[in-house]
Amino acid sequence: MRMLAKFRSKAANWLDPLRGSNGLSPPMSASMGGWEVVFSTSQPPTYFQHDIKSSPETILAYPPVYACVTLISNDIGKMRYKLMQQNEDSIWNEVQSPAFSPVLRKPNRYQNHVQFKQGWITSKLINGNTYALKQRDPRGVVTALYLLDSYPGVVTPLVAPDGSVFYQLTPDNLTGLEDVQVVVPASEIIHDRMNCFFHPLVGIGPMAAAALSAEQGQSIQTDSNRFFRQGAKPSGILVAPGAITQQTADALREYWNKNFTGDNAGRVAVVGDGLKYEPIRFTSSDSQTVEQIKLTSDFVAMAFHMPMFKLGGTLPAGLKVSDQNLVYYSDCLQSLIEEMEVCLDEGLALPNGMRTELDTDALLRMDPASMATVLVELSKGALMKPNEARQRLNLPPVKGGDTVYMQQQNYSLAALDERDKTNPLAAPPTPTPAPVPADPAANDEDPQVDTEQARALLAHIAKGLEFDTD
């Protein structure tokens, strides 16, 4: 690969000024003037519990661990990459770019984008770190990303005296690293890591905290398997009524183990001289096997921040499917998604105003009723155009669907403010009662017409109409 040949040719130039006693060094402990070595290249990692020697492959055989790793990686893997760009209104829209879109659709020659994301998250959960090697074209644009083996010691972070970060890579034919070790600068590696407890370049995955619980659960299952393979017959002792010699005891033990244990368990034994068989093994109820298995599963789920109802536990009362997915997303998936997006933004050197985004709508596909309710409410509330809602459901646009609708009786806040200035809700003023006309019948004298007033009124009318009244 052209990129790796370039690395090999320049490796000496990078390393020449860093060689010697003050050259590149892996993380060291504070007592040695640096940070503690978390993982040794000569010994398998101990995962906090120093007496646990199980490898990740063995721990993954425990069902709760396997379920957590695969569920998280598969759910994130099915979320589609989206390349987003911010417009002049500060709104983020999905776009296509010839420089960045191809590598998001097809990260490398042997993985599609789903497998790539699954491998990314699996590596991070098991070993606490994910390393992706970049391949560039002559323009310097990243055209492929290759996930490296993140097992401790395969990829080693190195720190120069001036604080520059490099990575030492071991041979890997799948990614094009052939038969020599290569040291590359941090600019050519995307390093996504879990919480860094001991050194900012060394992440510690949840497998570290789940190792002891997984080991305990596997021991319980192994013991139960052995017990039932023996016909569910508990181990015990042969009791003689009197004293016997050691030679007799050894002969009886050999005879019993040969004829009544293993595949011969459950066969009828005939013994004499008053010998009795006394079981000494705890029963399942006495040892609380079910409770112990459940406890180890709870601890494993706790390490992965996995809600127990996702692992077959009791569903919380009153929670709808959408509520369960929201709890699962916020507690378990969100930080992993956000960290992957940021690592890709920086690793692909996206310009300002562009970013990558994982399509979390894939989680709602498991609950179409909730998704439809959300889209209807957004459309009714004038927050989304009908065609935008139809696009989310993969439906074609309709005529008139590219505008926001609002019911006619709704008023703007400005109109309501103008209305309130007139105080329309105040109590109306009390009307003044009209005067009661006098009752002519109440007057003893006949009503008389005021002739002077009548003449004056006629004169006024005539003057207005401009004609003479004489």
Q: How would you characterize this protein structure?
A:
The structure is a single chain. The chain is α+β, with helices and mostly antiparallel strands. It folds into 3 domains: 1-232 and 282-366, no CATH class; 235-280; 369-415, no CATH class. Helix content is 40%, strand content 12%. The chain contains 15 helices and 11 strands. The strands form 4 sheets. It has a 3-stranded antiparallel beta sheet. A 3-stranded antiparallel beta sheet has the order 4-3-8. A hairpin with a 5-residue loop joins strand 1 (81-86) and strand 2 (92-94). The model is unreliable at 1-22 and 28-50 (pLDDT under 50).
Which key phrases capture this entry?
single chain, 470 residues, alpha+beta, 3 domains, 3-stranded antiparallel sheet, 40% helix
Strand order of the largest sheet: 2-1-11
Count of domains? 3
Number of strands: 11
Order of helices and strands: HHHEEHHEEEEEEHEHEHHHEHHHHH
C-alpha Rg (nearest Å) = 42 Å
Q: Main sheet?
A: 3 strands, antiparallel
Provide a concise account of the structure shown.
The chain is of the alpha+beta class and 470 residues long. The chain is 40% helix and 12% strand. The termini are far apart.
